[in-house]
Amino acid sequence: MPTKWIAFQGEPGAYSEEALFLQYPDDRSQPYREFRDVAGAVLAGRAELGLLPIENSLVGSIATNFDLIAESGLAIVAEVVTAVHHCLLAVPGASRASLTRVLSHPVALAQCERFLRGLSGVEVVAFYDTAGAAAEVARRADASLGAVAGALSARRYGLAVLAERIEDEPHNQTRFLVVAREPAPPPPGVPAKTTLRLKLPHRPGTLARALAPFAEAGLNLTKLESRPDRTAPWEYLFYLDVEARADEPAMQSALAVLAAQGAVVTLLGDYPRFTPPA
User: Which residue from 27, 166, 208, 269 lies 20 to 30 Å from 89 (Cα-Cα)?
Assistant: First the structure.
């Protein structure tokens, strides 16, 4: 098959690029500074697919990316779930004792707080990106400077790994959504998810009534996220992940009930549920 270009947010070596290679090991990565740039690259045809983080098992949702997908008109075609293992990186020849400052994204620093507190005399400095922090350490070639980033960043920038798996919680995972210009429903028989956006009438009880058809149809909701409706102050849109294909009879039944209730339903994509590699 021809090699695809896949856009991701961050510097080369970012956790998003690690996730990309997990799902698409034979394709080519294309870094962008902002999430909106990733969507723009796919819409403009500069990349066939885009990878957007949507939630972390410790930090929670990156809810603005739901808005980005819905507003761009892109379709979700896959999901990827990957473990996030932070490393302490430095230039070759450096040691923990030589470090005086450690750079990384604030979320990564927070996830490694216990380990970092154990580094005596080391100042923790927020940086815009984990892989960007690794690139900065490599550029400055200073043995007193370290970075918290992934193993791929170490390989990308020729850095030494001074410590592995330094995150405070071992079950740190991030879920990514893969977007494309056109939908790509999963083949028959493949376990699937469908992501929807609901705009509900602004009346008491509408959310409870909107969720009931899924329960009555025996469908499992794995995510429910509210976001401000930018067209109506203090009203909200709801994003749902449902473990089903969009064309399954049970899902079609639930959607018909929602339509009868006056809900405006936007299908953001139905796609195969992520299965970790064997």
Answer: 27
